[in-house]
Amino acid sequence: MKRPLALLAAIALLAAGCADARSGTLGPAPTAAPPAETTAAPPTKVPPLTTGTPTPRPSPGTPTSTGRPGDPAPSGTITLQLWFVSAGRIVPTQRTRPATVATSRLALTELAAGPSPAEAAAGLTTLLPTGVEVVRIVEGLAVVSPPPGFSDGGAATVRLRRAQVVYTLTQFPTVRRVAFPAGESVSRRDYADLLPAIVVTAPTIGQRVTSPVTLAGTAQVFEATVSIRILDSAGREIATAFTTASCGTGCRGDYRTAVAYRLATTQPGTVEVYEVSARDGSRINVVRIPVVVTASR
């Protein structure tokens, strides 16, 4: 009996490695991304919005969106993951801000404030208006109250706007799904089709990088192969590499690798992450991240 049981366990582990993870983990930010959903959750009816804000019940040490009067102010900083819009898709970047107990409020405020000048120059924008608030977070569900006009702009625009909110809020371990008024709750899986073929979570636009550069993100590419180039200010290659995502053709997987380069002087540069076309070998689904490349030793 021991040999058949061991065989069944091995098969189960292989199946789990290629489970449907269309949205990937896309984290961590600010502490860790929520666990990937492997099965579609049944629709959750949203309770009517109220004017009160019940106190959520987080696990010990978990960032929350509200605090209680008299709680000590947190110290240090917190790094948030923000999801902006680029070329009809949603893409991540980061902000490091003073720590607060109102993490979801801070994230939505930063999201509405829009991209930095460097991010805007790289094509990022936000569709989120100011005034979007989290009414409550209960049992993993964040109920959101948007301002008037949130649903203006056409179906595609509204869907991108909602995706920004969902992906930004579900970075917190206390939030797994988001509910908008007059609708059912949704999760990252509901907007996974709005992700580009390659998502880069590290490095971020404008970041100062050193050798070796850590690259991370998710990808849905041919044979799970993710290719990388690092370019200097003149566009010359100073490093090339490739890695493989945890899942390949037909599913989205995570990737993470470190790429070393050699450079005499610190200067602006570009990290390119792309897929090599199976048809003609060209670079496709290219993601360009402008960075500052520091001199190597």
TrEMBL record:
* Signal peptide as annotated in the record: 1-21
Pfam families hit by this protein: Germane (PF10646), Gmad2 (PF10648)
Q: Which InterPro entries match?
A: GerMN (IPR019606), Gmad2_Ig-like_dom (IPR018911)
Q: Where is this region: Disordered?
A: 27-75
GerMN domain mapped to chain residues? 104-190
Q: Does the keyword Signal apply?
A: yes
UniProt entry keywords in alphabetical sequence? Signal
- Bias-annotated ranges (Low complexity): 28-54
Q: Does the keyword Nucleus apply?
A: no
UniProt-recorded name of the protein:
Sporulation and spore germination
Organism, per UniProt?
A: Micromonospora rhizosphaerae
